[in-house]
Amino acid sequence: MAMSSILLMRKGLLINGLRRLWTCRVLLTDQPENDQQQSSQEHSKESDEEYEKNIKMKILAASLKYVHNFGWSQQAISAGAESIEYPGIIHGLFPNRGADLVHYFYLTCNKELNKILEEQALVVEQSPTKKKKTLELQVRDAVETRLRMVIPYKKTWPQALALMALPPNVPLSLANLLTLVDDICYYAGDKSVDINWYTRRIVLAGIYKTTELYMLQDNSEDHQKTWHFLERRIKDATQIHTILTTTSDMALPDLNYATEAACAAFVTARNILGLNWNR
Amino acid sequence: MLHLRQLGVRLMSTSTASGTTRSGKLLDSVIRVDHAGELGADRIYAGQMAVLGKTSVGPTIQHMWDQEKKHRAKFEELIRKYRVRPTVLTPVWNVAGFVLGAGTALMGEKAAMACTVAVETVITEHYNDQLRALMESDEKVDEEVLKTIKKFRDEEQEHHDTGIEHGAEQAPFYRALTNVIKCGCKTAISISKIV
Predict the structure, then answer these.
(1) Of B71, B80, B110, B192, which to mutate for an interface test with A (greatest number of A Cβ within 10 Å)?
(2) B91 touching chain A per CB within 8 A
(3) A191 and B80 in contact by Cβ < 8 A?
(4) Is A189 within 8 Å of B83 (Cβ atoms)?
(5) Dihedral of the CA atoms B5, B9, B10, B16 (nearest 10)?
(6) Number of separate domains in chain B
(7) Backbone CA torsion sign across B60, B62, B65, B69
């Protein structure tokens, strides 16, 4: 009994913990596209759910306008709902209040970035003669584009960051961040299939987050200092990467003698012990 | 928890429709575990070659190794194509594979062959299970993936037969050895499916 409950718990942990972070992009695709319209004639359970979700999306989209006044809060959602003629009390649909709004914003920005990157990739594909951007530049531009989406909400963004860091919201915001960096890496043409896959994404996530924090304090015109900061961080990362790869690529001393000696020793030992079967 | 699982199932059904460059959950895990497996196999043969490369079975092992390298390259290509997350444990399988290959090879060629037989048995079974699961599921799976798995399964079966021909069954402690290796392979497979 105890064993089975432990197993069950382990399974639950694995499913809800690990998968959530990386394999579970499904969590994020939960949200349907805004323009998806659902005919209200259908009465099956599934369509009811979709219908409800569409209304939620509409309300959240309308609420973004009120974030400047009310912050990422229940009031903003209420005001947004009223602006498109739903009762303000409908905020009850959003049990996580402000966090739902932040999540929605994050998700739409990610989608937009995805669209932009996809278009860029298409352009590059269609005109192979044009000089391609270097990898660092590509990553830098992608991060900059994404951060620029946050600028209109800069004043209230610290509140959003705080909301996302609350323990119940951490899995979702981590999944959001990881999907973001995964998209950037994918469109930048990351081809790694080993542990580098993880290190690159984690490093990029770190760069993104630190630059985001830097941006909040930055008062320079057009946030020039932030973009310089971002360039420096990317340069650091590539520098570390080159150091690590050159050391591992360095020619190793000739190992042939060592292997031969080890082999000979092993065979001799085996013969002494009489373990040379069927030879 | 039940609620969460239901949610998961529901989300899974919507995910394939909404993602354009993304793969379904089952395919995701299939490609990840197969890549891990081929990586391990590649390293096992590398280990065997390091010890037995200059003996009479050298060319046979080299031939099998070359095939495994092709398998690995193919799955690396699939990982990129379907945007699958590779397993976190690649460095572990890398080392473990080499140690297993070199370790059994040090016990003699027959033990090395026994190791090949054990590993290939598990892998063939595993590929068969996967084919069944992929055909049964309602996820849309490319013909390419199925063909690849089928072809690789046949080649792994060949390696298994080669191992038997080279006297794997006369290896010391054949039963115990193969069972231990089989058990290890199965554990590795179930871990790689998730992590």
Answers:
(1) B80
(2) yes
(3) yes
(4) no
(5) 140
(6) 1
(7) negative
Q: Determine the distance in angstroms separating the CA of A9 from the nearest CA of chain B, rounded to an integer.
A: 10
Q: Give the pLDDT band (50/70/90) at residue A36.
A: very low
Strands in chain B per DSSP E: none
Domain holding B94: CATH number?
1.20.910
Q: How confident is the model at residue B169 (pLDDT cuts 50, 70, 90)?
A: confident
Residue with the two structure tokens 């099998």: B64
Chain A CB contacts of B11 under 8 Å are 26-27, 29-30
- Does the CB of B184 have a partner CB in chain A at under 8 Å? no
Cβ-based contacts under 8 A for chains A and B: 72
pLDDT of residue A248: 62
The answer to the question of residue B116 being in a domain is yes
Q: What is the pLDDT of residues B38-57, one digit of tens each?
A: 999 999 999 988 888 888 88
Identify all chain B residues contacting A192, using CB atoms and an 8 Å cutoff: 86
Q: Does B92 touch chain A (CB under 8 A)?
A: no
pLDDT > 90 in chain A, percent:
10
Measured CA to CA, the distance from residue A215 to residue A226 in angstroms comes to 6
Test A266 with B18 for CB contact under 8 angstroms: no
The region that residue B113 occupies, defined by phi over 0 for left and psi between -120 and 50 for alpha, beta otherwise, is alpha
Residue appearing with tokens 């599934």 = A46
Smallest Cβ–Cβ distance between B194 and the set A14, A33, A193 belongs to A14
Q: Does A276 touch chain B (CB under 8 A)?
A: yes
CATH fold, domain A98-250, is Tetracycline Repressor; domain 2 (1.10.357)
The total of other beta-carbon atoms located within 10 Å of residue A51's CB is 15
ipTM of the complex: 0.73
Mean local confidence (pLDDT), B79-104: 89
Whether A23 and B25 lie within 8 Å, measured CB to CB: yes
pLDDT, tens only, A117-130: 888 888 888 876 66
- Does some domain include residue B15? no
Exposure of A37 in the CB half-sphere (CA atoms within 13 A): 2
Q: pLDDT tens digits for A173-206?
A: 888 898 899 888 888 888 888 888 888 899 999 9
If one compares A230 and A6, the residue with the highest pLDDT of the two is: A230
Domain residues for the domain of B67 are 24-194
Q: Is residue B82 part of a domain?
A: yes
A69-81 mean pLDDT: 86
